[in-house]
Input
Amino acid sequence: MTSLYGLIKARIAVDTPSPALKQMPTTVAFLVAVLFCLLLPQELVSKPLAILGSVLLIAFATGLSLYFGSVRRVTRWTLVVPGISLIAIGVLREGSNGIGSIFSALIVLPVVWIAAEEGRRWVVVATAGTFFALMLPYLIEWKLPLDASESIRGIFSPAVFGIAAAIINELSRQGRQQLASIKRLAQEGEDMLVQSLAVATRLKENELQLHAADRLTRSVLDSVTEQSVIGTDLTGLIDVWNPGAAAMLGLSSADTQGKRFVFDFHVESELEDRARTLNYPAGATVLNPGFSALVESARLGRAEVREWTYLRQDGSTVSVSVAVTPRIDDHGETVGYIFVATDVTQALEVARLKDEFVGLISHELRTPLSSILGYLELMRDDDESPLSGEQLQYLGVAERNAHRLLRLVGDLLFTAQVSSGKFPLDISQVSLNEVVTAAVLSARPVANAAGVTLVLECPDDPITVRGDTVRLGQGCDNLISNALKFTLQGGVVTVSLSSSSDNAIITVRDTGIGIPAAELDQLYARFFRASTATRNAVPGVGLGLTITKAIVTAHLGELDVQSEEGVGTAFIMSLPLAKVPVGAQRES
Output
């Protein structure tokens, strides 16, 4: 394909004649003048040798023009050609005294060539060349013009030719500028064409990649039949509906995409309850609180997996665990959300049966343990048959282990209540300063025995929340106890209390063995023990964090963790500053 720039260059080559082409009019006109001289009477041609010399000069100039054209090098030296032509015209005028003035018109042809060159100086050169060609006959004979008209012509004609040369030079300059502009535009046009072709090629490649990615995505979505995958825009309108969603909810993609909203398949009361816990800022306008509650964590950039109840097309319900993630475009903007739901009905039933079993076993264990502790106390207080020191020591070991079992049974019962969603909270105004200080004082003997420095950072200003004093104290005790257990001798555990505009914040930070990053999302599962705990033989059964998480959640707060293995761990408990009205007694 011939480029636009190539076409322009070809056109420029035609518009820029070779030296031979420029010389040709002068040569032809000169030969016509010589032929005219040969046809005139002898008395009018006074010097034939001069005419012959002029012919030789014009022939030499023409030969030079052909040479410059053959070597394809157009330089300033080509201006020798019109210079020689001017000398030849002057010699011709010398050889034809009678009619020499007639041939003055020939001067215009080489003058045009010289004047068309780039630069104002060539106007002067053309004017001087004209004067030289006109005055050459007098220079050869070394005499002054005898006729006044000849003198005037020697001055006036170069001036006229100089004006004409100036005009030609200016027109040539403008022509060169236009030509340069055309060349530049042609080059820019070719560059734009090349860029456009490159962009078109990339767009084609991207289109093919997008088609391939779309086919891959659809094949992946179509292959997922055990999970429901639903995609929406920012308003909740469904635009992705995989076969798993069709099987779970009883509607095809044709019935939902672009027609139904994701919150149509949620229990409205669940969405309302979730919306109430988010505490939107005062004055905020939320067009759809239910959908906003559904995607709030994802909108803020936090991954969230929460249990919801889906409504099927036939009116039945299914319990699901839904992971919500944002859909991001190429500019990093959120354009919608993806909801991946897994049917947890069977898992919930298994968990319920397990909780019932744990509750039953706990109840069955509490009674004999209470009886054992009662009899141990009777044996210790029997004045009629006092025990020896060694017997009392053995009895103390049995009592400690019985109390430990009783606490474990209490924890098991509490986790059963948590799993069932019901455990009592005695709500009142709670001073977190007192709760945190009491928890630190209780843990200080354990810290001293373990060789760990326990630091309390508590503000003077009271920080008050509404909650259950006992349960909040239990949560603080669990976090501090965990920190002490996981911190080696010589380490530091720092307990700090602070507040933000909306929340009270309790942070328990240690310099202990840390928790692997891959295990952080499992910390709150019942009976889970971190690998660092098992490797270092740290005692425990894995219920403390489960209980603490449940207590914080029941108080509408959040429990976060930051940890680096070998560096330490920080648990951050955030509780709302008495902004949620609650009754004097409630069950979570």
Residues 72 and 151 are 42 Å apart (CA to CA). The first helix runs from residue 4 to 15.
